[in-house]
Amino acid sequence: MKKLIALSIVLFSMVSCKEDTSKTSNNSAELKAEVQAFLDDYTNTFVKLYYDSALAEWDANTRIVAGDTTNAYNVQKANEAFAKFTGSTENIEKTRKFLEKKDALDIVQVRQLNTILYAAANNPETVSDLVSERIAAENAQNETLFGFDFKVDGKSVTTGDIDKVLRESNDLNERLANWETSKAVGKDLKDGLENLRSLRNKTVRALGYDDYFTYQVSDYGMSRQEMRDEMNKMVKEVWPLYRELHTWARYELAKKFNAEVPQYLPAHWLPNRWGQDWSALVNVEGLDIDAALADKEPEWIVREGENFYKSIGFDPLPASFYEKSSMYPLPADAPYKKNNHASAWHMDLENDLRCLMSVEATADYYETIHHELGHIYYYQAYTNPDVPPLLRGGANRGYHEAIGSLLGLAAMQKPFLAEKGLVDANVEIDETQNLLKEALNYVVFLPFSAGVMTEFENAVYAENLPKDEFNKKWWELAQKYQGMVPPSERGEEFCDAASKTHINNDAAQYYDYAVSYILLFQFHDHISKNILKQDPHATNYYGSKPVGDFLKEVLKSGANNDWRELLKESVGSEMSAKPMLDYFAPLMDYLKEQNKGRTYTLPESL
Question: Full-prediction pTM beyond 0.85?
Answer without folding.
Answer: yes
